[in-house]
Amino acid sequence: MTSPDKGEEKEGPVIRDRRRIDPETGKLREPAGEPAPQATADGDAGASDEEVSSLKTQLNERLADLQRLKAEYDNYRKRVERDRVAVREQALGQVLSELLPVLDDIGRARDHDELTGGFKSVAESLEAVTGKLGLERFGEKSEPFDPTVHEALMHSYSADVAETSVVDVLQPGYRIGERVLRPARVAVAEPDPNAGGDDESGDDGDE
């Protein structure tokens, strides 16, 4: 009897467990030789895409909230600035309105060459200060009549004007910025409606 080959004795019998259920874990085994499906990996990838999409959506929402908040703040800041300017102009207007009669006296004194000596120095200083505060005098002869800034106290017709114009300033007007403290009180003249008609009738007579 020949002795068995040493290699066969060393290798021994090979036992392959072909059971579909793992006796230790109780889970279904995958067939031998086939790669395990990538369900878990694919599932993780899918979950990651959904998370990224959700994060992008949340980020866009937060960005929109920040932009809306910034716009509201900018509008608030502009409104506060407008209110601040309006309050300043209103306060200045109340103070400067009380000085208008004094400025009228200074103007009349200047027109009559009575603005001399120390009175002239004080008057010019007062006019300079009110000018720095934004007080502006307006109303000049020959300028077009504007009912928003002029108050017509006298009215006439004239062949020397092509439109309703100021022919005399009875009392100057004052304003701060766009706010009129007092309209200019003026005499106005309109174009004479008969001036052209007389010329035309005279021409007809010559013919």
Structure notes:
The structure is a single chain. The protein is an alpha+beta fold and 207 residues long. It has 2 domains: 45-133; 136-195, Roll (Nucleotide Exchange Factor Grpe, Chain A, domain 2). The chain is built from 4 helices and 6 strands; from the N terminus they run H-H-H-E-E-E-E-E-E-H. Strands 1-4-5 form a 3-stranded antiparallel sheet. Strands 2-6-3 form a 3-stranded mixed sheet, with no helix packed on it. The model is unreliable at 39-43 and 199-207 (pLDDT under 50).
Indicate the proportion of strand residues: 15-25%
The DSSP helix count reads 4
Largest sheet at a glance? 3 strands, antiparallel
Low-pLDDT parts are 39-43, 199-207
Q: Measured on Cα atoms, how large is the radius of gyration?
A: 49 Å
Percent helix, as a range, is 40-55%
- Mean pLDDT across the residues is 81
Overall number of domains: 2
Subunit structure: Homodimer.
Family: Belongs to the GrpE family.
Subcellular location: Cytoplasm
Pfam families: GrpE
